[in-house]
Design brief:
- The structure is a single chain.
- By secondary structure, the protein is mainly alpha-helical.
- It has 4 helices and no strands.
- Helix 1 runs antiparallel to helix 2 and helix 1 packs across helix 4.
- The longest helix is centred in the last third of the chain and has 18 residues.
């Protein structure tokens, strides 16, 4: 299973990429200010799927 901290970090990155660039908002995302809101939580399923897919690809290559 994928680590929750790793999933949340990826969800934050996806949220940052999704929204209009803003240094203040990017810092807030990176510091976890939006972790409980829909701006980040809606990206959790996508983040988890991407991390699992990446792990499977890395395992197959090795």
């Amino acid at each position: 299973m994928t680590d929750q901290a790793e999933i949340m970090a990826r969800a934050r990155e996806l949220a940052i990429a999704h929204f209009k660039p803003s240094l203040v908002r990017e810092r807030a995302f990176r510091n976890g200010a939006y972790d409980q809101g829909t701006d980040v939580t809606r990206f959790i399923p996508q983040a988890e799927a991407e991390l699992i897919r990446d792990r499977q690809e890395n395992t197959e290559v090795e």
